[in-house]
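Field reference: sequence -> structure
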Amino acid sequence: MASIINVRLNDARVLPVSFENLDLKLGEKVIVQLDDFLEFGTTLHPVKAEVEPVGTVVRIATEQDISQNEQNLSFREQDKAKVLERVTLAGLEMKLVAVLRSFDNKKILIMYTADDRVDFRNLVRDLAGIFKMRVEMRQISERDEARFVGGCGMCGQEVCCRRFLGQPRQTSIKMAKIQGQALTPNKINGLCGKLMCCLQYEYSQYKEILDNMPVIDSRVKTPKGEGAVVYNDCINELVAVRLDNAEELSKFKMEELEILSVPETEDE
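Structure field:
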């Protein structure tokens, strides 16, 4: 019976692929069959959920395969310069991110970003004549670009989308609000200019804790008297209250409080 494992390709995509009768370890270099082309990749973690594989591991890469892949990658800048020249001549509004060859040199992949749809039909015909390969144009997002290019996040480590996430995840401003993050772009945005993927990691825990804590401005009764909730300390699971008879804030555990009233909220 075939097993399924995730493989990171040269274009930074992480795809589930099947394999049989192979002892694959983490970080193994492999040759993968995708559609009509062979691609070079590196094995990651096994697939946990039930997914449909999109390719097949043909073999564990040999020294010759690794050398061939390095040779293919050495053409990146040269190929990119050729494509950029043609894009400029055609006057197309697009930013080239990378130009990569498939392992078997039957396809050339052009990854780009653009604000609007680009009519590249003439460009594809032109490039097919130059490279003598099938040309694939792939428009990618800012998150995909960051995943491909890589870099360090504000934590000092390589960005998560490049290091282990694979496919970029969707995040929302609500995730930052619930975790008490400062809602300024340089604090919550990643290298891609979008909300950081890591805002998802502790969101469910924060939400679960907050769901059991009083809303801000709620009136509560405490062992020291009545007051209003100013903020919730999720990390320590304490509620900060400004007592009616005191200027300084006091913190209490949830079990010490009795909620007297909650503020009216507008529908979102």
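Note: The chain is about 25% helix and 30% strand.
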